[in-house]
Amino acid sequence: MLKNLHFLIALCFVAFLLSCKEKNDVNTNIGKPNGPCKEDNTCENGYSCIDNSCKCPGTGFVYNGSCVQFDGNNPVYIGSNASCLCYDTLAFSISGTGQNRIANMPFRLGNLIGYTTFDVTYFERPDGDSLHIIQIPAKCSLSTTTAPPEAFGKIQADKSLNLTIVFKDQTTAAPLGTCTMNMKRLK
Question: In whole angstroms, what is the distance from residue 54 CA to residue 46 CA?
């Protein structure tokens, strides 16, 4: 009888410890992607509080751990290449008509999700549209002497964008390297 009592007490203690662990695990996910919303119905990294859960809404997509929202009417491109000189992933949308268009590019700084815009010269061609970006407004994390890169791209038959990025020295304009990203069109 005493053995059964000790076993019952030990079992209750283990159950208590496990319930504390589950509560602590849930609490560490509050406000984080796919976790419960914070008390003020907010979430981190651009996620939205939907049905008391931090989710990336249907008009957004996950980029570098953040939920990024774009205007649903414009094409969105995302691509990566680990061999690029300054950054390995880019995402942007292109809006407007005619030759002079605007690109909208997200950035993340800590928990802050922001956007920057830049000009795109767009050429509508029967064999696939082309574009030229004089400067992608993204700082190079590897060097303070690298100028914002220039880019040239061509829309492929599958609607992806083959983008060549040219990195130059800020002072001399000498080429430092190039890379190509095959950017998938998300919408």
Answer: 9
The answer, yes or no, to whether residue 100 has pLDDT greater than 90, is: yes
| pLDDT digit string, tens, across residues 54-63 | 998 877 777 7
- Give the separation between CA 149 and CA 167, rounded to whole angstroms: 5
Start-to-end CA distance of the chain, whole Å, equals 69
Pairing of strands 76-80, 89-95: antiparallel
Other C-beta atoms closer than 10 Å to the C-beta of 76 total: 22
Name the DSSP class of 38.
P
How far out from the chain centre does Cα 99 lie?
27
Residue 81, class by beta-carbon neighbours within 10 Å (0-12 exposed, 13-18 middle, 19+ buried)?
A: middle
**How much is the CA Rg of the chain, to the nearest whole Å?**
24
C-alpha–C-alpha distance, residues 23 and 30, integer Å? 11
User: What is the rounded distance in angstroms from the CA atom of residue 31 to the CA atom of residue 40?
Assistant: 10
Q: Which two tokens stand for residue 152?
A: 């040239």
What's the CA gap between 70 and 27, in Å, rounded? 30
> What confidence score (pLDDT) does residue 157 get?
92
Checking if the pLDDT of 148 tops 70, the result is: yes
Query: pTM to 2 decimals?
Result: 0.67
Phi and psi angles of residue 160, each rounded to the nearest 5 degrees, phi first:
-75, 170
In this structure, is the dihedral angle defined by the CA atoms of residues 69, 156, 94 and 79, taken in order, positive or negative? positive
